[in-house]
Amino acid sequence: MNRKLLGILIVAGLALPGVAQAHTTRAELHRDRVAVKHERHQLHRAAAHHNWQRAKVERRDLARAKHELREDRRDFRRHR
Per-residue confidence at 68, pLDDT binned at 50, 70, 90? Predict the structure, then answer.
C-alpha cells in the first residue's frame, strides 16, 4: 500500500508542473510589444548619436525582445 501511495505521489508530482504552467495572456503580449518598441527606439537613438557600441548592444536587446514576442505570440495562438 505504501508503494502504491508513493507511486501515485511521484506521478502527481511529475505531472503537476505541466498542468500548473500558465499560458500567455493578452497583457503579456502587450508588454512584449511595448518592449520591442522601446528597444527599437533606443537603437535609433544610439545610432543617431553615433554611439556604435551602444547601438550594437541595443541591436542585441532588440533581437532578444523580438524573440520573446515571437515565442509568446506562438504560445498565445496555440492555447486560445
Answer: very high
State pLDDT tens for residues 12-35: 676 655 555 678 899 999 999 999
Distances (CA, A) of 66 to 17, 35, 52, 73, 80: 27, 9, 21, 10, 21
Angle at 48 between CA 40 and CA 68, to 5 degrees: 15
Rounded-to-integer distance, Cα 60 and Cα 76, Å: 24
Tally the C-alpha atoms within 13 A of residue 18's C-alpha that lie toward its C-beta: 5
